[in-house]
Amino acid sequence: MAKLTRADLKKIRDAKSKEIRRRDPEGKTTHVIIGLGTCGIKAGARETFDAFLDEVDANEKLQLEVTVTQTGCMKGGCDGKNEPTISVIASGMEPTVYGNVKPDAVKRIVNEHIIGRKTVSDLVIDLK
Amino acid sequence: MRYKNYVLICGGTACESSKADEIYRNIQKELEANNVHGETQALKTGCFGFCEKGPIVKMLPDESFYVHVKPEDAKELVEEHIVKGRRVTRLLYNKPDCTTSAVASVDDIDFYKKQVRVVLRNCGFIDPEDINEYIARDGYVALEKVLFDISADDVIKELETSGLRGRGGAGFPTWRKWMFTKNTESDQKFIVCNADEGDPGAYMDRSILEGDPHAVLEAMTIAGKTVGASRGYIYIRAEYPLAIHRLEIAIKQAKEGGLLGDNILESGFNFNIEIRLGAGAFVCGEETALLASLEGKRGMPIPRPPFPAVKGLWGKPTIINNVETYANIPAIIRNGGASFAAKGTEASKGTKVFALTGKIANSGLIEVPMGITLREIVYEIGGGIPNGKKFKAVQTGGPSGGMITSEFLDAPIDFDNLTKLGSMMGSGGMIVMDEDDCAVDVTKFYLEFTVEESCGKCTPCRIGGAQLYHYLEKITNGEGTMEDIESMRKISRAMQKASLCALGQTAPNPIISTLKFFEDEYLAHIKDRKCPAGKCQKMIRYVINEKCIGCTACVRKCPVNCITGEKKQMHVIDQAACVKCGECERVCKFAAIVKN
Questions:
Q1: How far apart are CA A89 and CA A110, in angstroms?
Q2: Which of A5, A23, A71 has the CB atom closest to B101's CB atom?
Q3: For the purposes of burial, counting CB atoms within 10 Å of the CB of B187, is it exposed (0-12), middle (13-18) or buried (19 or more)?
Q4: What pLDDT does residue B102 have?
Q5: How far apart are alpha carbons A69 and B336 in whole angstroms?
Q6: DSSP conformational letter for B271
Q7: What is the C-alpha separation between B288 and B273, in angstroms, rounded?
Q8: What is the number of other CB atoms lying within 10 angstroms of the CB of residue B41?
Q9: pLDDT at B103
Q10: What ipTM did this prediction achieve?
Q11: How many domains does chain A divide into?
Q12: What is the number of alpha carbons within 13 Å of residue B123 lying toward its C-beta?
């Protein structure tokens, strides 16, 4: 490592801050959980995961508020019709499960549910 | 490349000695084998604190908390948790909520609920061997501030506002130490870090150095800039190889990055830090003895004043602070003294790290706000006393401290309250005792320690300590007299008044404290020749009662063949030959052997 200047320190902090925030659950108020069961992955859940991370990484406020994690198969969601399924747990709101969340739906969920704090009703599925 | 998952493996000394490094390497290998190493980062961090459950593997950001992990579990953890998103419930401490499939936050685990992590904020979150991780967590922001934006007086003002008091035990206001050194004219000054942590059962400083070494380096550099010193020394005991190793890496990286050495961050300020290893003498935790040892002399204290702040290492003004004190400073400078002072009590601000050990369900390293009660620590964080036993006392302050009994469980813990209760904060060791612990026996243990560790320079400590130990031995052997108690009180007073340093002055504290709270136990040993807890071996007898059916199980187990009797007849123990190992009692299926 070469000798650092103040500008270099800032660069390191800026470059790593997103990653540190992604790692740190402290103070997060919204939790997005991606169903990464086999059929979820087949239906593109990994791309959905990435799409959520893209949205969060692009917005400093979301970086501090949102955690995106994975889980296995979401019970009842894997009848082949609803994958990828995700759930959003935002403090003060009912936990909501969404189905068929392709990357284009991610934008809507982030904007309407997480930022706008309103359920995206046409994407909601009912897990029994 | 972007990481989605983080696997944090505790790399503190305790987990490390339970194969944490092998777990780390196996996880790394499995991540690669499953081709997920591009999106999952494995990190070896400092101590998570919950040492009772180690080795611990924590998954972030979803906060799955895996406990008692073995190296062979790595495959399952990676294949199930990372690849398929399924939690390995058999190893999971915080079970998921089935309606949301989110695990309970680590903060909701009883052990962590009441904890506030200020000093330990990076410990168990960052990789201590990577300076970039520290920098990314606002590391060296405080140093930048001190180098470029605020004056030395501002630094001392912030410390004063913060109310920070020395974490090594005595609780002296840190800002005053710094001010004395700053205001003393000298061609050279020194910054010393006391990492000679020696209290039995204490490992706060070790864990800080292992988990967040740069915090201490940054604080020492800030101290250097503030008082005008260009050299710093970390005096650390050689028994802490992992802490030393991480410090060496941290110093090397800080030097390479220009955060130590000449012209730090192009500010024109020069500061170097060197490590000095202590050979394991307890007295070297005393500041003047430590400085003597640093100078290459025998580690013995000298009378104060002059205090090291004015005349210290090689006769020059020297700031000497403890590891935890330093570790608090970057955050105080970064966030302002007032934010630090917002936590704690009137005269004891901030948080304190304690090593909670002994008869406690959740032993480990905890950080709590000053003013928390002992009840919260023992019963909420610590999870109470295991095996349904009764709480007896908590020993704080190590060999210089005393006992806090159940009647004081609700007293707020801070520097002044603990002193009022006849104990002391000390460096932060907390040893919990239950009904099976004998107050006299525990006291004897501490006196044995201080006698062993006395440097021998002053008579009250050298001779007084040995005499106290002799009386305790007499009492626990069942040969004590009431005069012995009086003699102990007298010697204790003399040692408190006439000893040269804190080691001798405080060595009688365990005796004074137990005589105050557990005098009845001393009396039982002396008058009834009985150890109520059944701990003092010389005073216990194993006897066989009429429940004995003569099965001879005990005869076969006894290591000294002192049990005799006919088959199917009641047996007897030859008391003269018995070594009181208790094996017969354990092996007897008929409760026919009892201790009295």
A1: 12
A2: A71
A3: exposed
A4: 63
A5: 34
A6: B
A7: 20
A8: 19
A9: 67
A10: 0.90
A11: 1
A12: 32
Contact in structure between B234 and B260 (CB atoms under 8 Å): no
pLDDT digits (tens, 9 = 90+) for B390-409: 999 999 988 889 999 999 99
Those residues whose C-beta lies under 8 Å from the C-beta of residue A11, and which sit 6 or more positions away, are none
* Residue A85 lies inside a defined structural domain of this protein: yes
DSSP of B127-146, one letter per residue?
A: -TT-HHHHHHTTTTHHHHII
User: Measured between beta carbons, which residues in chain A are less than 8 angstroms from residue B256?
Assistant: 1-3
The residue of chain A nearest to residue B145, with distances taken between CA atoms, is: A6
pLDDT at residue A39, rounded to an integer: 81
Q: Which domain holds residue A95?
A: 27-123
Centroid of chain to Cα B588: 39
Does domain B439-527 sit in CATH 2.60.120.260?
Answer: no
- Which residue in B has a C-alpha nearest to residue A32's C-alpha? B102
CB atoms closer than 10 angstroms to residue B296: 7
pTM listed for this prediction = 0.91
Residue A20: inside a domain: no
Give the per-residue pLDDT at B552: 92
**Which pairs count as long-range contacts for B261-268, CB under 8 Å and 24+ apart, including other chains?**
B264/B143, B264/B147, B264/B221, B265/A4, B265/A5, B265/A6, B265/A9, B265/B143, B265/B144, B265/B147, B265/B148, B266/A5, B266/A6, B267/B147, B267/B148
B541-595 under CATH 3.40.1010.10, yes or no: no
Q: Is the pLDDT of residue A79 over 80?
A: no
Interface test mutation site (partner B, options A1, A21, A68, A75, max chain B beta carbons within 10 A): A1
Domain over B351-434 is classified CATH 3.10.20.600: yes
Q: Which residue stretches of chain B have pLDDT < 70?
A: 1, 96-103
Q: How does the average pLDDT of chain A come out, rounded?
A: 87
- So what's the pLDDT on residue B422? 84
Place of tokens 């611990």: B56
- In terms of Cβ atoms closer than 10 Å to its own Cβ (0-12, 13-18, 19+), residue B311 is middle
**What is the rounded CA–CA span in Å between residue B150 and residue B153?**
8
User: Terminal CA-to-CA distance of chain B, rounded, Å?
Assistant: 69
For the packed helices B519-527 and B482-498, what is the interaxial angle rounded to 10 degrees? 140
Cα–Cα distance for residue pair B216/B193, rounded to 1 Å: 8
Tell whether the torsion through CA atoms of B510, B513, B515 and B517 is positive or negative: negative
Q: Which residues of A touch B86 (CB under 8 A)?
A: 71-73
Asked if B101 is an interface residue toward chain A (Cβ–Cβ < 8 A), one would say yes
Q: Do B2 and A72 touch (CB under 8 A)?
A: no
Tokens of B64: 């799955």
| pLDDT above 80 (res A126) | no
- Check whether domain B131-341 has CATH 3.40.50.11540, yes or no: yes
What's the pLDDT at B96? 67
CB contact under 8 A, B100 and A95: yes
Task: Tell me if B136 and A16 make a contact (CB, 8 A cut-off).
Answer: yes
What pLDDT was estimated at residue A75? Answer: 64
Q: What CATH number is given to the structural domain containing A62? A: 3.40.30.10
Does the beta carbon of B352 lie under 8 angstroms from any beta carbon of chain A? Answer: no
Higher pLDDT, B437 or A77: B437
